[in-house]
Specification:
It comes from Amygdalobacter nucleatus. The chain starts with a strand and ends with a helix. With 143 residues, the chain is an alpha/beta fold. The chain is 34% helix and 17% strand. It has one domain: Rossmann fold, CATH 3.40.50. A 5-stranded parallel beta sheet has the order 2-1-3-4-5, sandwiched between helices.
């Protein structure tokens, strides 16, 4: 079964995107104290926080890019080991740090970054993410 685990702030941009996928989904709670445990494989979809900030040498600052609730969720080994891939959203106004939460998580967990989309995403983004998620789970079944 293709499962999406996602985080969405009170703006609900990511939530609205995930709804369009029409796939089974679980939302990471907004409160840090809630301990969501997922015991099956999933694709993570997360927004990017902060952005556009650079240090004195012009390097993109990544601190704060991954929402704290996502960090808490992934700090649980049981959750982390079931993450097959990542999708992230962002705002192109932030230049080099656009949707950077995805690459940060993908690199940390050694999983593929499937797609990055802006804000609410387009129909193209929805189609691309849905096909990529289904492909990941098809590969899992065939292994």
């Amino acid at each position: 079964m293709a499962l999406i685990v996602y985080y969405s702030s009170k703006s609900n941009n990511t939530h609205r995107f995930v709804e369009k996928l029409n796939l089974p989904k679980v939302r990471i709670p907004l409160a840090e104290g809630d301990n969501l445990k997922v015991n099956e494989d999933f694709v993570l979809i997360t927004p990017t926080y902060s952005g556009g900030q650079k240090d004195a040498d012009g390097h993109v600052l990544t601190a704060g890019a991954v929402p704290k609730d996502v960090i808490h969720f992934l700090n649980q080994v049981e959750n982390r080991k079931h993450c097959l891939a990542v999708v992230s959203s962002g705002n192109t106004n932030f230049g080099d740090s656009y949707a950077i939460a995805g690459p940060i998580i993908a690199n940390k967990l050694h999983v593929p970054l499937l797609h990055q989309f802006e804000l609410l995403g387009t129909e193209y983004d929805v189609d691309k993410v849905k096909q990529a998620v289904l492909c990941i789970f098809k590969e899992q079944v065939n292994e």
